[in-house]
Amino acid sequence: MSDAHVPTSPITGDDTSPQEFTRSWQQWRAGWEQWLTQPLGWLAATSHEWLDDTPRHYPGLPGRWWQHGDAIHIDPEGTPMALGEETFTAERRFTLAGAPDDLRVAVGEREVGITYRGTYLIVAYDPNSPARRDFDGVPVYEPSPRWVLPGRLERYDSPTSVTLDSVGWSTHTHETPGLVHFEYAGTKHTLQVLSSHGMLLTVFTDATSGVTTYGAGRSLDIPSPDSEGNVMLDFNRTVNLPCAFSEHFPICPLPPSTNRLPFAIEAGEKTPR
């Protein structure tokens, strides 16, 4: 799904001046786009492949890549590669089942992200990709305090998971701490909350999806609740999923039925250009 997001500036409350509200949003926005355009971030993705049990060469990647059981095999054929602090030039076998998404193998200035979904997905990242080179920002709605809504996190009694479809063919089980309840225009709504990289977030669609915003949904980070579960949902900070920028992220989660909101959230990021 998403990588760990950039540190966010505090969400401002009702007593914040319009100038401070806008300044805080602009600061967050600048940090987000800086993160988005990092040399080996989402915009650097140039290809993706699902591995099988046949050793293969893939366009733009050195060596041979394949899967056997729940292990990935990489034969660099002499090309230096690195996973963390370990460098290797001969065949290596890694078992990444249960590991975090998007573990990276470095190949010179490029990287290959590895994700396990029963089958291994590899995504090639090149800092000189056309998408990163030509990026000129993401269109957004103008920020408005009306889209900062109070909510309450209802935690489950014990650790729980939810299985979600993806934009590709796979499903995946995600950790969920509970549900967040909020009200808009006098009507109560509920969103399933996910836990990723130690952060809380939700993915949702609304009446703008497929019209002015990405059709498969958008993502919103949720700040840590207070002792009573109270949170502020700042929909001005809604962002696109990586699959909105590229076809090379077929594992983006689709929102559960609970998270398909019937009204238009005219806040946050619009469909990328």
Automatic annotation (TrEMBL):
Coiled coil: none annotated. Residues 1-20 are annotated as: Disordered. Pfam families: DUF1684 (PF07920). Residues 9-20 have a biased composition (Polar residues). PANTHER family: DUF1684 DOMAIN-CONTAINING PROTEIN. This is DUF1684 domain-containing protein. It comes from Nonomuraea polychroma. The lineage of its organism: Bacteria, Bacillati, Actinomycetota, Actinomycetes, Streptosporangiales.
